[in-house]
Write a structure and sequence with these properties.
This protein is mostly helical. It is built from seven helices and no strands. It has helices spanning 2-18, 28-46, 54-66, 71-85, 92-105, 108-121, 132-154. Helix 1 crosses helix 7, helix 3 (54-66) packs across helix 4 and helix 5 (92-105) runs antiparallel to helix 6. It is globular. The two termini are 21 Å apart.
């Protein structure tokens, strides 16, 4: 699921990382085809929410954020709120799910506020002049990478 998130967000994340230049290995046509492939299976992916472990749900939250205007992502919002409620306070999983939900809701001012607050705390920022979608997905990617690393160290 994390790989699908990476595929769905590569163009936006790289744009934010390299802003205002273009990523040296950008392949816009290939990236768009790959993104479209993930979007095509989005409803089936998000339909798995209730049967998946929390680690998979976290990646699914990121995938929903990558396609905020789709019906499947919007339908997931109540589940995102429920999952976020399981992580009160400032925790990595809670911040991650709340950011994914904020991106999915799509209110620009809320996304900007969340990105600015989180990057000022712990994460590598992108240029403030970079497109907000890319900045938000870049941050979400960093958080997901840390969540995966933490999960690996907790495996028996």
């Amino acid at each position: 699921m994390s790989l699908l998130f990476s595929i769905a967000t590569v163009t936006d994340r790289h744009e934010a990382e390299c802003w205002p230049q273009t990523h040296p290995h950008a392949n816009p046509a290939g990236e768009e085809r790959s993104r479209a492939s993930v979007e095509a299976v989005l409803p089936q992916l998000l339909a798995r929410w209730e049967t998946e472990y929390v680690t998979v749900r976290l990646a699914l939250a990121g995938i929903a954020a990558a396609f905020p205007s789709t019906g499947a992502s919007q339908d997931l919002l109540p589940s995102l709120r429920t999952l976020a409620g399981q992580y009160p306070g400032w925790t990595l999983p809670g911040d991650y799910v709340r950011l994914a939900g904020t991106i999915t809701v799509g209110k620009r001012v809320n996304i900007l506020t969340a990105v600015e607050a989180l990057t000022s705390q712990h994460w590598s920022p992108t240029a403030r002049s970079a497109p907000l979608t890319g900045r938000a997905l870049h941050l979400l990617d960093q958080m997901l990478s840390q969540l995966r690393a933490t999960a690996k160290t907790q495996d028996p």
